[in-house]
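Quick question, first post here. What does this chain look like in 3D?
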Amino acid sequence: MKLFQIPPLKASIRSALCIMLGTGMTLAFQSNAQAQSLIALYESAKAYDANYQGAKALFEASKYKADESLAGLLPNISLSTTNQHQTVNGYVAGQQPTPTYQQLLGTHVASLTAIQPLYNPTNYATYKQSKKQLSQSASQLIAAEQDLLIRVSQAYFDLLASQDSLEVVRAQRAAIGEQLAAAKRNFEVGTATITDSREAQARYDLNTSQEIAATNDVRVKKLILDQLVGMTNTHPKPLAKGVKLPQLQKEDPEIWVREAEDTHPSILNARLALEVAQIEVEKSYSGHKPTINFQTQFTDQVNLGGTNSSGVLIGNSEAKSNSSSFAIVMNLPLFAGLYTHNRIQETISLEEKARDDLEAARRSVSLNTRTAYLGVASGLSQVKALEAAQNSSQVALEANKLGYNVGIRINIDVLNAQSQLYQTKGELAKARYAVLVGSLKLKQANGTLSSEDLVEVNNLLDK
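> Answer (accepted):
Ran it through. Tokens below.
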């Protein structure tokens, strides 16, 4: 009597494989019809991502702020008018309390004033600062764009890696199913023990749980990419078959570090912040300096009504007058309650802080660039090693299968060889994607990353 009843799996496995093949063909057809390239998803993310759009809006605001500061150096022209009306009622003593006459009095005054700064060091320093701050916003926008490039690429290849892992798990399940069927057949004819069937069944059940986890991981990675690019049900294009990974363009990490000094947004931003702080020190010293303005004013006045030489109101007469004036006004601060002195000391300390921030940015960029370089170099070596390991694992699996058929290997040896092969395949796929993302992160680390680099990676995808 058999210890346990196991339904024959040969037909069921064939049926399952047919279903999987049909599903795979359907998905492949849908993928080819609807698959999006890395560039297409990046462009979608640029229009949707809130962080990038916020940096873009800040840059636009900085341009207007720079133009605002120019107002302190240009003429200030204003027009003011005054209209005043008054009715005067005249009475004769001893008569009825009704006015014997009325007089309408009024004044119309219009003044045009223009002020042109001739010497105002504070306003000029503010204008120079606004230009530096505009450049800061530009570097921040570049940093936001580079960050978006990396986030889209990471999510894109994370999803591809997750999909590859699921395919590997399913392929491994099919292989284990075949080995399980073979173990059962051998047990039925008496050439193998029940242990072989149980070992294969245990691996098959374990693989089922791995497939559930891998399927869920694909769903999660797809949600992450969908959220990032503002689309639903994204289908990223896979890497082209047999594509070769790009090698490091420069073999010396010091070259990458030296490039960062002139290109990295963090260093540029910190350098501009130091220049802004230095101008702020210059501005604080302006508290001891005079300001000189040229002022001109033209006034036109109309008076309604009037009096004679005896002070008696006469008819509704009208008197006009106008005047113009020109002046150069100088204002020299003498004492401001030690405000200027303390402001100078404050700005000097802030300048020193900005200098320290610049040095910290340089050190951070240098460390990140070297780390990213080593990661790419190590990843390329790891890909080569895993490719060799995959070939070796394939040979080892075939040898174990042959040994199992002739009776010198047991079922667990074949299962272990299968597990090693598919694990190596999964690690190789992840390593290849890691190199592609790592190469982009290396260029981000030294500040040279641009959309052209994304095009180069996009050319490696399936057409």
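The longest helix spans residues 121-189.
The chain is about 65% helix and 15% strand.
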